[in-house]
Amino acid sequence: MFPGICEGVMGESILRRARDRSLVEVESIDLRQWAKGKHRVTDDMPYGGGPGMVMKVEPIYDALNALRTPNARIVLMSPQGRVFDQKLAREASQWEHLIIVCGHYEGIDQRVADHLITDEWSIGDYVLTNGALAAMVVTDAIVRLVPGVLGDAESAVQDSFSSQLLDHPHYTRPESFEGMDVPPILLSGNHAAIAHWRESEARRLTKARRPDLLE
Fold first, then answer.
1. Residues forming the active site
2. Four-residue CA torsion sign, 60, 66, 67, 70
3. Is pLDDT at 199 greater than 70 in this prediction?
4. DSSP three-state, residue 55
5. Short-list 112, 104, 160, CA closest to 133
6. Interhelix angle for 131-143 vs 3-10, to 10°?
7. CA 179 centroid distance within chain
8. What percentage of the chain carries pLDDT values higher than 70?
9. Following DSSP, what letter does each residue of 67-130 receive, concatenated?
10. Closest to 113 in 3D by CA, of 91, 131, 127
11. Fewer Cβ atoms within 10 A, N terminus or C terminus of the chain?
């Protein structure tokens, strides 16, 4: 319902370069194209009463019929969905066609989730004002894993959550700043020792901050 949110994100940084180089095709599509009536209404009052509005099934149904391809996966961004993680991002980066349905208001008519989508994802245990924000998080996480998108493919391999560990600390110049120094091991030129330090630091941070990953 608010394609401008998506265009703002997709017009910057790595996402923009990936589109410009035709490594991916990403498009934000206004759902109101398929809404009926003079005012292109996409929501209505909930059956059974209650606060807020609910997004109608008809515009989403018509939009998906117009946009889907035989290999399309249709994802609904929803607090009730499977938690999106790096493993799922990597899997989705191999998909040919992904359609993301972005919720708004109090939610979407349940018939969409029950009958029209293939996957339901959440980016965390909290609620946003608009599913387009969550969709952009998902899109960015997936697109950066498409071959050729990152300048150095090794960057994606070493990311947090690419293994069972968080990423190790990173440093750059200057070597010393306001009494804060770069760990001497990183200046040693001993690549084997540096690799061992990085793995040890990754394990230390994971144990301290995300012990569930080690389990």
1. 79, 106, 144, 159
2. positive
3. yes
4. strand
5. 104
6. 30
7. 38
8. 95
9. H--TTEEEEEEEEEEEEP-HHHHHHHTT-SEEEEEPPBTT-B-HHHHHHT-SEEEESSSS--SB
10. 131
11. C
Instruction: List, in order of start, the domains of the chain with CATH numbers.
Output: 3-143 (3.40.1280.10), 163-214 (1.10.1270.20)
Q: Which residue has the tokens 């050729």?
A: 148
Residue 186, both tokens: 């990183």
For tokens 């969709």, what's the residue? 135
Confidence of residue 53 (pLDDT cuts 50, 70, 90): very high
pTM for this structure? Answer: 0.84
Distances (CA, A) of 93 to 54, 88, 101, 113, 140: 31, 9, 17, 22, 10
Residue 106 confidence (pLDDT) above 90: no
pLDDT value, residue 162: 62
pLDDT at 159 over 90: no
How long, in residues, is the chain? Answer: 215
Q: How far apart are the first and last CA of the chain?
A: 41
Kindly give the interhelix angle for 13-20 and 131-143, rounded to the nearest 10 degrees: 60
